[in-house]
């Protein structure tokens, strides 16, 4: 299953990581492409019925959208378009200037590609039609054109799709495993990461991701390498097959271990973490959480949201490796439509949910987990994140 890009919402704010071309980090002699990603707020269209008749909270907690976006320059006119980086798919697509935005979604806000103005574009006789598990769709045609990542890194005749109909808020750069492309000829259609290697910009079809601390604005994606100043210890490597999953054995809190061995999907497009029911039940009980049927989320004391609250959830992947994530990373404010009900004053939402068939480690987990993905070796490396302002890039 490809990772979700847009999930039904419950707050009115989308946190998106946007990457400006000026933020490209300088490369040394190693072959890497390192880019800073800036956290920004983005408006969101919510189909939540008639909220005027409700006096309880409307949150985007359970299915809050999340996107890391980087800026590309496409075609002979170097048209700027921001695209969401997706670890669960492998196609690159962008909306055209004439795109039809479905479901009242503002699909042009992050930029569009004016096909008719690019003299370097080559049309291919292949349709593009993709649907993600959350119902997000995009349809159009495959083309080839020049794609620029920053000021220097240029891919000539890069294959991607131009979309003329979608209900997604932006285009997508799929950087998942080979074979996740919509193209019928998946065996020869390189995704963007492989294209960077083929062009000689990186040595390995790989990348790493650093998520910033909660409410901070700068993260980093490193194509072809890692940033050794952003994690402690060694990267623990796990082999993958058809999905970017790791073996999660248990989650512990306050010396209590909640076990349920399962494969967990590393999902950059999910704002929150989804866990097996028995693990979730144990954690929410320990946090004195109360489930709200109206909201569809657990609520906890907002005191847990403060950075002074140092207690952490420990995610154990095998006997000698685990990741600690402070509790406050999982606690979210609730935004009220009307007056806050007395019984929910000083309560916040918990960004942990019951897994619906698939355990997902989302953004709030990844803020303390450094991730390195090697598409060629089909492996994932994990390490405890270090929130440092320094950089020490190393190619893979």
Automatic annotation (TrEMBL):
Top EC class of this enzyme: hydrolase
GO BP of this protein: proteolysis
Record's signal peptide: 1-16
Residues annotated as catalytic: 86, 267
A Gene Ontology term for the protein's cellular component: extracellular region
Subcellular location: Secreted
CDD domains linked to this entry: SAP_like
Keyword Hydrolase: yes
One Gene Ontology molecular-function label: aspartic-type endopeptidase activity
Highest taxon listed in the record's lineage: Eukaryota
Domain Peptidase A1: 68-383
Keyword annotations of the record: Aspartyl protease, Disulfide bond, Hydrolase, Protease, Secreted, Signal, Zymogen
Main location: secreted
Keyword Protease part of the UniProt annotation: yes
EC nos: 3.4.23.24
UniProt catalytic activity: Preferential cleavage at the carboxyl of hydrophobic amino acids, but fails to cleave 15-Leu-|-Tyr-16, 16-Tyr-|-Leu-17 and 24-Phe-|-Phe-25 of insulin B chain. Activates trypsinogen, and degrades keratin
Family according to the record: Belongs to the peptidase A1 family.
This protein's name: candidapepsin
């Amino acid at each position: 299953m490809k990772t979700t890009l847009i999930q039904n919402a419950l707050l009115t704010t989308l946190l998106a990581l946007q990457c400006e071309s000026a933020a490209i980090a300088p490369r040394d002699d190693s072959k890497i492409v390192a880019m800073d990603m800036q956290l920004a707020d983005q408006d969101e269209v919510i189909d939540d019925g008639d909220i005027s008749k409700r006096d309880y909270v409307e949150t985007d907690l359970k299915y809050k959208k999340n996107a890391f976006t980087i800026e590309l320059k496409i075609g002979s006119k170097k048209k700027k378009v921001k695209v969401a980086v997706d670890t669960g798919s492998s196609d690159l697509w962008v909306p055209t200037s004439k795109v039809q935005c479905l479901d009242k979604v503002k699909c042009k806000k992050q930029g569009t590609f004016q096909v008719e103005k690019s003299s370097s574009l080559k049309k291919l006789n292949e349709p593009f039609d993709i649907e993600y598990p959350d119902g997000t769709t995009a349809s159009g045609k495959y083309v080839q054109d020049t794609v620029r990542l920053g000021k220097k890194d240029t891919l000539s005749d890069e294959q991607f799709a131009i979309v003329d109909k979608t209900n997604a808020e932006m285009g997508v750069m799929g950087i998942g495993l080979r074979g996740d492309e919509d193209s019928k000829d998946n065996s020869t259609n390189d995704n963007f990461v492989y294209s960077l290697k083929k062009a000689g910009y990186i040595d390995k079809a790989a990348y790493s991701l650093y998520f910033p601390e909660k409410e901070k604005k700068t993260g980093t994606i490193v194509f072809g390498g890692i940033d050794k100043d952003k994690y402690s210890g060694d990267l623990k490597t796990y082999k993958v097959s058809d999905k970017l999953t790791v073996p999660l054995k248990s989650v512990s809190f306050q010396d209590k271990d909640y076990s349920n061995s399962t494969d967990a999907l590393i999902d950059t497009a999910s704002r929150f973490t989804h866990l097996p029911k028995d693990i979730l039940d144990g954690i929410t009980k320990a946090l004195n959480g109360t489930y709200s049927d109206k909201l569809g989320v657990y609520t906890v004391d907002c005191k847990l949201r403060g950075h002074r609250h140092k207690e952490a959830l420990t995610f154990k992947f095998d006997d000698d490796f685990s990741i600690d994530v402070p509790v406050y990373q999982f606690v979210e404010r609730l935004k009220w439509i009307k007056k806050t009900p007395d019984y929910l004053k000083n309560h916040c939402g918990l960004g942990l949910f019951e897994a619906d068939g698939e355990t997902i480690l989302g953004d709030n987990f990844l803020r303390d987990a450094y991730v390195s993905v090697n598409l060629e070796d089909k492996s994932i490396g994990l390490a405890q994140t270090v929130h440092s302002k320094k950089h020490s890039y190393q190619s893979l």
